[in-house]
Amino acid sequence: MADPALKQDNTLFDVQRSATGRFWTLASVDExxxxxxxxxxxGSDLLARLLATRDVTPEEAPSxxxxxxxxxxxxxSSFADMxxxxxxxxxxxxxxxxxxxxxxxxxxxxxSSAILARYFRAWGEDLGLYVPDRLEEGYGPSPAAFRHLKExxxxxxxxxxxxxxxVSALEExxxxxxxIVVIDHHLMAGHHPPAAALVNxxxxxxxxxxxxxxxxxxxxxxxAALNRLSRERGIAxxxxxxxxxxxxxxxxxxxxxxxxPLRGVNRAFVRQGLSILSHGQNEGLRALAxxxxxxxxxxxxxxxxxxGPRLNAGGRVGDPWIAAKLLATDDRAEAIALAERLHALxxxxxxxxxxxxxxxxxxxxxxxxxxxxxxxLVAGGEGWHPGVIGIVAGRLKERFHLPxxxxxxxxxxxxxxxxxxRSVTGVNIGDAIAAAARxxxxxxxGGHAMAGGLSLESDQIPAFDEWMVSHMAQxxxxxxxxxxLPVDAVLSPGAASPALVDxxxxxxxxxxxxxxxxxxxxxxxxxxxRQVGANHLKFTAEDSSGRLDCIAWRSADQxxxxxxxxxxxxxxxxxxxxxxxxGRRRVxxxxxxxxxx
Length: 597
Description:
Blueprint: E1 23-26, H1 31-37, H2 45-53, H3 61-65, H4 69-72, H5 82-94, E2 99-103, H6 107-122, E3 128-130, H7 143-151, E4 156-160, H8 167-176, E5 180-183, E6 197-199, H9 215-233, H10 248-257, H11 265-278, H12 283-291, H13 300-317, H14 322-328, H15 332-370, E7 377-382, H16 389-400, E8 404-409, E9 417-422, H17 429-438, E10 444-447, E11 451-456, H18 461-472, H19 476-481, E12 484-487, E13 489-490, H20 498-505, E14 519-532, E15 536-543, E16 546-552, H21 559-563, E17 569-581, E18 584-596
Parallel strand pairs: 1-12, 2-3, 2-4, 4-5, 5-6, 7-8, 13-14, 16-18
Antiparallel strand pairs: 8-9, 9-11, 10-11, 14-15, 14-17, 15-16, 17-18
Helix pairs in contact: 1-2, 5-9, 6-9, 6-10, 6-14, 7-8, 9-10, 10-11, 12-15, 13-15, 14-15, 15-16
């Protein structure tokens, strides 16, 4: 377990430069706080330390450890326009108006639209669906899309996970007499555009304190508002009001896949939603799990890294409507067909991504050879698919620990190049891109601290690259801090038991704002090194306490893979996972870094 002696120096094992180019630090905590937290976790020193490093107070611990909707659910009326939106939508249901949901093409948009579709269905009403094409229409509603819906007979449109910043589209809707209810969660600046109602915990005048919700979470609160209004009016469909608790699997999935902070009601969404997910009540999600080879969806990993990418695949490289349809259907045959299509599209996405990643990595390495001190990497190529450039930018950031921007253009993608950026903590890439747009270096762009998007002409890329390198020179200290790899505790291989994994899971769920614990193994002997899959490495870490199975994903052709050699003696860092195979439950360390001891 954690060695108190190591607390005297935050640098762990004196590692200044690991295989992945990081320096390691051991989390320091207030020992008095640890002691005060121990009663909440059955006296466990380790679990109390994990809570302390996640800034959980003894007063917060009970709710953090056992999050419930009863204690954390917000009052729907605390959201600006929530009551107004509920009145408009419930009236539309009762008057049998033609209502369409306009959803973003990612998981958060798909889960949000599915919650509404299932709510309408419980009232015996169909909800129309519109999802924009990433390549043809870009993100969010457009004037043309709203005109199209009006021409098709829509009498009300509900936008989910988009719309709050769609000024021109909402102005056009007002002009043509198409009422719009916006349900969004993205940051807004200043005055909001015209809408029949605009529900967004991040609009400047909303006092709900729920800006951390994903769109699916906001839509779940909206469903609660609709039920409350129905009770106040004394009305319900023949079979009773919709059971919104059955939508928690969708709320959890949207929350996790949109990387929303796991605090407050989000923890309850995920904890209770995963329980519903594990029972396979949603036909679409059950079918997707089956084609993904998952017997039971019962973890954040399954939701975020198995189901999420497949649901996103349609919006990235195929039909953006598939995920929303899958999540809303109750038809088993339709669910299987849609799930198989998404599974195939995800394979296509991975192939496209791998090809672009290889080229982008080569460009990044060449750029660093020319200028090792550059504070950002910019890569671009003709035909690079805009549906995967964000993923590639994230992969580059993980490898080089620098802000990265990846740009694609040409080959049917239109005359304007599109770029997507990902950043490291402390370097606001959205602000940098917006500044480049203001100075005319690019056509447009912006974003937030960790991610951004941009449009530019392909011949502007060299000047943009030069401008960004100059701009990022000021963040030397922030880039250095981004190389820190914090570790929660030192662990011996023999102490890594299934019981310990279960203990740690008890303080979950883990995700953004509640990171999964990271453990270090000190001076272990490496045996049984073998490559599995395309480029993963499996091995065993041993010392006098015992042995622990380890796997380093996507590492065989990376610097990390170079140090994982038979008979090597290494310090190793990773996360503990339960590994079940042939009915036997074991523990495995998912390795994120290593260095020669």
